[in-house]
Amino acid sequence: MSNDKGLQDAHVKIGTKQTMKAVEIGQATEVYVAEDCDQRLTSRIVTLCAKHGVDITYVPTMRTLGEACGIEVGAAMVAVLKQ
């Protein structure tokens, strides 16, 4: 990811439940999804983002996405919040 530091500095919600909620209530401007996360989760967030007009960026692995957010575990998805 080219903006690893940017995710650490941005207001984000990390994890599936928090990301989906942020999209549903209109707080998310962009969603990052790990390509190696469960396909059922991926399809749900893609549908939700399409419905709400939120851009999706794919990241190769959950580990990479977690590191980009400054956490020591993997993350399936992350929502960048409106400020």
Summarize the structure.
Helix content is 43%, strand content 24%. With 83 residues, the protein is of the alpha+beta class.
Key phrases:
83 residues, alpha+beta, 4 helices, 4 strands, 24% strand
Give an overview of the whole structure.
With 83 residues, the chain is an alpha+beta fold. The protein has 4 helices and 4 strands; from the N terminus they run αβαβαβαβ. The model has no long low-confidence stretch (mean pLDDT 90). The protein is globular and about 30 Å long. α3 (39-52) links the parallel β2 and β3. α2 (16-24) runs parallel beside α3 (39-52).
Strand order within the widest sheet? 1-4-2-3
What is the count of helical runs?
4
What share of the residues lie within helices?
40-55%
Rg on CA atoms, Å: 11 Å
The biggest sheet amounts to: 4 strands, mixed
The whole-number mean of residue pLDDT values reads: 90
Topology, number of strands: 4
Set down the secondary structure blueprint.
Elements: H1 4-9, E1 12-14, H2 16-24, E2 28-34, H3 39-52, E3 55-59, H4 62-68, E4 77-81
Parallel strand pairs: 2-3
Antiparallel strand pairs: 1-4, 2-4
Helix pairs in contact: 2-3
